[in-house]
Amino acid sequence: xxxxNKKNRRYIHNFGVTxxxxxxxxxxHAAGTPVSADVLKKIISATKNDFGNxxxxxxxxxxxxxxxxxxxxxxxxxLSAHPDEIIFTSGGTESNNIAILGTFEFLLKETxxxxxxxxxxxxxxxxxxxxxxxxxxxxxxxxxxxxxxxxDGLIDISELKKSLRGETAVVSIMYANNEIGTVQPIREIAxxxxxxxxxxxxxxxxGRKKVLNESYPIFHTDACQAALYLEMNVLRLGVDLLTLxxxxxxxxxxxxxxxxRRGTNLSPIFKGGNQEFGLRPGTENVLGALGVAEALxxxxxxxxxxxxRVAALRDYFLKKIIKxxxxxxxxxxxxxxxxxxxxxxxxxxxxxxxxxxxDALGVACSTKSACKSDDAEVSxxxxxxxxxxxxxxxxxxxxxxxxxKKELNYATQAIKESLKLMTKNYKL
Length: 428
Known about the structure:
alpha/beta, Aspartate Aminotransferase, domain 1, 2 domains, 11 helices
């Protein structure tokens, strides 16, 4: 099939489609989830009592401080962590920035050196809030290894081993990819890093740069997409830093969590106060912390049941799409994958036009990460999978708690109708 010319893209008023009357079908849960009714109820109730600044000494402040403490305990319980290892933030992006930049801020302060003395490892398919941070540090002298991924989106552990150096300060590998749903072997990565820490001093080669102590490299994982479905016990995972986002777990927007293992050294990247154990200045978002903690508690109770339910729906939906479109290409691993994620390429089809057509028919989906939706470039995640995956034609469908089979039946028909019109217009 011939490639689509983006300049000739048709817009919604030319599509000749009518929005469905039965209500919308939301299949973009990876970008953002609706706030759970139970979470919202909890937040609304708390607004009556938790308006005080938790840093104050009067009764209103004490009440807010108590709610904040309880939220921290609840969040820690979800992760099998200690309460003092929980940092509340404004979301996944801020948590990722604090984790990475905070590590290097600490090292620069302690060593009096510069970034040229350090090294970091990440993957080519990380979220932009990780990739762009490392690219910014590269410009200041940091050496970064970007691990390539297989066609399934998985890193090669042997390549990770080869990439580690005495001066490696951070390894940041995403737990579950936000676009293609591929789940990385986090426990194996952690084991590899621990082994390297243990043996790097005695294996130091002469002439190498100064070897960092046995605490490094620090292992950070962005787990924003993983929290609803995967193992989140930080002791079993073996991570030092872990990122969560409230907007991906049916919690409130502008809320997030950074788990920081005891003994892991970070310096604040913002100035202005000593809140959140000195790492996140500014008046604490008590209601936000309450909301994300409640959302995590609900997720923990329903995880196994919801995993099975959503996975069955995903497989049902995928089979129906393949039946109508046997030429599609599945992006990402089928076995090591989030249960709610389908990312597929329709070769020769403009993905943005398809998404807009589906939206007009009442079906919400996406082409790539929401954080990069305004970027004219195709998805760098799909591009990293190799030349057989057509990033310009890739569409992501992500299911959630409210997804039902009848909605997927409608979505399948909407896809069929849209593709029929598009292929006719393109004269393929």
